[in-house]
Amino acid sequence: MLSIRRFSMFALRSVRLHIKKIAIILVTVQLLLTIIYVLNGGLSIIDGGWKSFTSSFFEPFTHTTRNNFYANFDLRSKDNVVRLCEKMNFDTSGEWIDTYTLKNNLLTVKMGAEKGQVLNSVEDLRYYDNDPRLIWSVVLDHLLESDSNEYAFSWYDWANFDSINKLIALKNTKISCQFVCEGVFDKEVLERVEREIQERLFFTNRNKYDQPIWYNKARNAVGSNSVQQIMHDHCKNNDAYSGGTPFELPFIVSKIYEKLRPEVYDLHTKNHLLYSNFTPLSLTVLDSDKDVYRINLRKADSSKSNIVQTKLLRNYLQRHKDEMVNGDLIFNHTSIFEKFLDHASTKKRKLNIEGLDKTIFTREYLELSPSDFHFDAKMKITELESKLRSEGLSSHDTHYLQSLKTSITTAPALQKKYFAEASDVIDATAEGHHRDRRFFSIGHNILDDPQEFEARLTSLIRTFQKFIKANGLISWLSHGTLYGYLYDGLKFPWDGDHDLQMPIKHLHYLSQYFNQSLILEDPREGNGRYLLDVGSAITVRVQGNGENNIDARFIDIDSGMYIDITGLSVSSDAAKQYMSKFVEEEESSDKSFSTLIKDYKFNENDHFDEVDGRVGLAKYSIFELKEWVNSHPDDFTDAEKKQVTNTYKKELDISRSDSAEKDLSPKERYLLNEKYNLYNCRNQHFSSLNILSPLRNTMFSGVSAFIPNRPITSLNNEYKVPPRYGFLTFQGKVYLPEFRYWFSFFDVKKFANLQSRDPKIIRLENPLNNLKFSDINLLLTNMIKCGFHSIFANLFNSFESTVYRLKELEIQYDLSISEEEKKKILKVLRGEVAKNMKSPVKDPVIYTYEKKLWERVEKLMNASNLYDIVLQVEKRKVEEFVELSRQVYKRKYDGFRLPDGGSGDAVTDLNHIGLNLFGDNKKTLNDIFGSDQKY
User: Fold this and answer.
1) How far apart are CA 745 and CA 388, in angstroms?
2) Beta 552-556 vs 562-568: how paired, if at all?
3) A Pfam family matched by this chain, by name (predicted)?
4) What is the pLDDT of residues 401-444, one digit of tens each?
5) CB–CB of 341/471 below 8 Å?
6) 3-state SS, one letter per residue, for 105-161
7) Residue in 73, 868, 189, 843 with CA at minimum distance from that of residue 456
8) Pairing of strands 562-568, 678-680
9) What is the pLDDT averaged over residues 322-327?
10) Whole-angstrom distance, CA of residue 783 vs CA of residue 794
11) Nearest CA-CA partner of 410 in 118, 619, 719, 136
12) Angle at 476 between CA 475 and CA 480, to 5 degrees
């Protein structure tokens, strides 16, 4: 987290021997140069003159570059370094540590031979970082000034192109398609690039290129003939490029090729995205979790539509020239954002979707209806076509109508895979199977930084939940995400994605109004940018060939990480055997599900919504489709024939399964599932209305969320949930309830010094399953000594979220509290405590920005002094964590003490309400997950 391992005391001692002599020489030279400067009447700053000359001259020898390129934030100040250390690791607010200005940030050259020079104007920019403060300010100001609700979109402004900018900055080093089409970079070319830009091209695994055995093996893995073919099929020269053309590269990746190392694939996909014709349909701007605003996008000419090329930036500066001080200007994006929200013209951008209720998150319970799990595609198509003829359709409605028409003609056995993961990237540690291939990125160092990895995943779910709440859409936590929530209100630390479910009716709302929209987090809270992508066959509700089990994804465009979203509906898939008991339970009779099926009178005239107006081959059952393919072999590829055959075999397997519906036809299965409210996603995860409804309102990762009515039952259908809340081991992981956190057992053994291998680390004497309060301070101190800085930061930042979940559990499972009283107390907890809850993670964009500042600090400051600062900050935070834990332990936590009358309820102190699952008096009988609680 803090790169302490990089501190080299040996190097420091050797440098100190000569530092005084060097300092004397430098001061003398600087004095002479100053005299020359004065005698010659000075040099023009605009022409790159004196400041640029002295900055570039002294930078290799001193650590005093001009303002360090950051306005009003001196990185040589000890107070500022302390502040940066604390903010980078322990402040999860959306506030920036400094200001973004025209001169110090935008116009100051950051890379290459001209590093440190200040450009004359924005017209001289060849590249720039898409700092959110810059982009938000310019775009929102343009929309307000023009009173328009659209503008020309460029991925360059909204996605992170740091790695691409390094190539654009090159003037002397020539690169071509070959550079990004080889399995690994050509080391000679790589080193030439890095010499010119004066920094690393990438950070993750960069050291491997200095290991001859690894490098030669990696280079030989792909033959030269293969590389030539890859270049021919996937890359072409850029005709618009002529040495040094602004915002251009000499080549264009026309088609993504995956079998590359992560660092190569990063540049490969970023180039492809930059020159892609793919443009989102809109921007959806969040006002926290209250409202959303729609900004329509114009499809621009290739990539030539960023804020410099469209003159938006120039016009912005012209409008704000009176605010400039000494030719500089601060980009205050949050001020402009609030002006945007308050502006009269913004009202027309606000989305209020007919049929959705934005008040649902004010309720403790949300009742679901069987109608939520049905959707009539034929009726919707008729409705949209009528609207098209009478008044025309928006871009979103047009896209949705086309999607519906595609979907109803798609035979489940012939579906083409819609979502594409970067699963063929060379290097299993890259987690390519959990990344969208279009947006895969290793970022600054995301693969080796668990803190950033966790921040991105958590920011994903937090923004999605705020987006859901702001629109009144219905979804709930499912699968592994629900399982992780159960213990501490967070995801499992080892999970690489999130899983959510929606009723099919709301999946269609999502598709109609937000498919292909870029969702933008409220910039006052964070800087998330996510593409909402819904598959093209969501009316297909059976598994079919299994290629499209996921209905939609919420994708982080800076990393490719995503949330999996699946819709639940009635379908003709055979219900799993575990559903039998829920049917029998709902019927309240002695009859088994099999007996109920035999007694059921199937009516041939019963409606069969499964067809949903299907046409062509899509209306055929798999048996009919198999016959059609056999009689028309020339109309199908070998791959399609194989898909049909495999789907046909899966249907035959149902008759040999243990499903109660195994002897029924697809139509009969549909009618039975509809009658007994059995719903499934396309991955054949089944649930029932009485498992799901009413949904329960809770907090997950610090934001509002719904969970199923019977979460334990739901999870036990997929997993086996241990009944005990307490110390728990699972696949090399350990849950310590005193910290409300999961740890790697390998890490625990180290910072608890269980094997007494490190004499500097105090050994934990108490068993892990019976920790004492005093052990908290011991283990935290050991964590810091062992270098587990990221783990401690995560523990500290998630304290409020995990303590909230602890209190929620104590109330929910306390049998001495009546159901009605529980409802009142939980409402107070959620209404008064949760509203002040901070985010358990940092915004990843701000974290990356501060991490780069810290890397500059490491070059500027004495290593031993820096090490002392880090220890000083962490020691304070350990003390703070221990004090907060003591409050919880003594049941005197300030966070549970509500202002008198703050809620209008008699309950003002929640500390002593509910079970005591923490402290000396904690209940020994804490088998609370044995069954679902009722309230």
Assistant:
1) 60
2) antiparallel
3) LicD
4) 999 999 999 899 999 999 999 999 998 778 888 999 999 999 88
5) no
6) HHHECCCCCCCCCECCCHHHCCCCCCCHHHHHHHHHHHHHHHCCCEEECCHHHHCCC
7) 843
8) unpaired
9) 92
10) 12
11) 619
12) 135
